[in-house]
Design a protein that fits this description.
With about 210 residues, this protein is of the alpha/beta class. The protein is built from nine helices and nine strands. The longest helix has 19 residues, at about 5-25.
Length: about 210
C-alpha cells in the first residue's frame, strides 16, 4: 500500500472488526456510517475517513455490507493468513494468555510453549507441552514460527530476543517491559505495558477531554 496509514487508524481496525462481528450475530446485513458511528462512539466522518484509507467500501444510499466489510477488514489485518507463534515464559501471565486468548480468531496459531523452569517442563497447556527453553533453536528451525510472545522478566528479554531474531522471528508481542522496538527497528513489535494503560486511565479520570477511542 503506497499511502502511509496512521497508527491511530490501524489501531481502530480491530475495533471495527469486533463491532461488525457483533452486528453479524444480530443477523444485520447492512449499516450506514451514521448508525455505525452511534454504536461505536465515533463520528460518521471519522469512520468514512478511516475506511477510505483502504478503498471505498460503502455505497451511497445503501451504507456498508456488513459481511463484506468485515471480510475486507479481516484481510487487511491479515487474519486470513495466520502466523505461527511461540510463547516464552509460562508463569501466571503466560499461562493465562495461552489459555484464554483466542489466537485463531486474531490471525495467529500458537505452536509452542517454552520456559526455563524444570518444574514446568512437560506440563500441558492448551494441548501444548511446555518445552525447555534450551530446545528453542531446534524447534524454531523445524517449525519456522514468525512471532514470539514474551512473558518473561525484563532482564531476560534482551538475550532471548536477540536469539529469536536470529532464528527468524519477525514480530514480538512483548510483555517483558524491555522495549524491543528500540533495538530492532526492522522487527514488528507490540510492547504491552499494563502500567502504562492504567496511567492512561488515571489521566482520563482527571477530567481530560480525551476521546473515547478504544
Amino acid at each position: 500500500m503506497s499511502t502511509k496509514i496512521s497508527n491511530s487508524v490501524i489501531r481502530r481496525l480491530p475495533r471495527y472488526y469486533r463491532f461488525l462481528g457483533e452486528l453479524q450475530k444480530l443477523k444485520m446485513t447492512r449499516i450506514s456510517s451514521r448508525e455505525l458511528s452511534e454504536r461505536m462512539g465515533l463520528t460518521a466522518s471519522q469512520i468514512r475517513q478511516d475506511l477510505n484509507c483502504f478503498g471505498g467500501f460503502g455505497q451511497q444510499g445503501y451504507g456498508y455490507n456488513i459481511d463484506l466489510l468485515r471480510s475486507e477488514i479481516g484481510q487487511i489485518l491479515g487474519l486470513d493468513k495466520p502466523q505461527s507463534a511461540i510463547l516464552i515464559g509460562v508463569g501466571n501471565l503466560g499461562r493465562a494468555i495461552a489459555q484464554h486468548i483466542n489466537f485463531e480468531s486474531t490471525g495467529f496459531h500458537l505452536v509452542g510453549l517454552f520456559d526455563s523452569k524444570e518444574a514446568l517442563v512437560g506440563q500441558v497447556v492448551r494441548n501444548l507441552p511446555i518445552r525447555n527453553i534450551s530446545t528453542i533453536d531446534e524447534f524454531c528451525r523445524e517449525n519456522l514460527p514468525t512471532v514470539a510472545i514474551l512473558c518473561i522478566p525484563k532482564e531476560s528479554a534482551q538475550s532471548i530476543s536477540a536469539q529469536l531474531v536470529k532464528l527468524g522471528i519477525k514480530g514480538f508481542w512483548n510483555f517483558s517491559h524491555y522495549d524491543l522496538a528500540l533495538n530492532y527497528p526492522d522487527i514488528v513489535v507490540e510492547n504491552m505495558h499494563f502500567g502504562d494503560s492504567l496511567m492512561t486511565l488515571s489521566y482520563r479520570l482527571q477530567g481530560s477531554t480525551d476521546t473515547n477511542e478504544e
